Amino acid sequence: MLGLFKPKLPVDPDEFEWLMAGYAWLLQEFDGIEGLRGTGLVLPDGDYFPASRATGHMRAVELFDQVRAIAGMSDWQCDLYEGATDADPHVAHGHALRRLTAAQPLGTFGYADGRYHVTYNPDELARPQSLVATFAHELAHYLIHSARTRPPGGPELEEHATDLAAIFMGFGVFQANSARDFRQFQDAGEQGWQMRSSGYLSELSRVTALAMFVRLTDADAKAAEVALKDYLRGPFRKAIAALDHRHPRLAEEIAAVDLAEWR
Fold it and tell me: Does 6 map to a domain?
């Protein structure tokens, strides 16, 4: 009966089982637990991303290079290009109401003419945290492509594994904060709403994966919590408490995952 009152994870058991397998795979492919413990928790502050006067594409390049340096990928050949901007958000021309529930991709990763490349949506320059999350996600694609084996769950879950890899690289706060964005606005005679989503893992999965990163690396849980959106802080605390009570030997549990069962 006492077990009923222990804190529970924000995600269901199947999701958590996949997150465990995902971490097991990433640790197997990329430097193990000691390598992960050398990875810092990246925060949206001036220590990681100093203030800049750069604008437009030059600002995007600056942020991209900073993300690459933090991820230890500065020497990996990869070019950055502007992608498509968002479509016209007006419901109908001549109307004062606007909406945006779907947008152009926030970023892409590809290979052409002997080089890897990343594109980004220039509209994201107005949302630097989201742009950093996009760059981390696209570079995580590059990281995954360098692996010897495929992520657990096969091709259908490769994009989910890419989200997890970006968290594994230290960008969990950015991934969680950028998963969903809802805004209302009224200006210049127009009013409406804007809703965006990015990536494939849910907000709660990202928050749980961030909590796992914090406990695996001994990162500052309070710093991570404070940097999250207000409504994500409660689920993050819940995930930390559940890991501490139910999975106090998280690294050992992950090491025991049989990845053969996921192929």
Answer: no
DSSP string, 181-248: EEEEEEETTEEEEEEEE-SSS-HHHHHHHHHHHHHHHT--HHHHHHHS-HHHHHHHHHHHHHHHHH-T
Q: How many domains does the chain have?
A: 1
- Whether 80 is in a domain gets the answer yes
Q: Rounded CA gap, 178 and 173, in Å?
A: 9
CB atoms within 10 A of CB 8: 15
- Written as tens digits, the pLDDT of the chain (263 aa) is 455 668 999 999 999 999 999 999 999 999 999 999 999 999 999 999 999 999 999 999 999 999 999 999 999 999 999 998 865 554 444 444 444 444 456 899 999 888 999 999 999 999 999 999 999 999 999 999 999 999 999 999 999 999 999 999 999 999 999 987 544 545 555 544 444 545 689 999 999 999 999 999 999 999 999 999 999 999 999 999 999 999 999 999 999 999 999 98
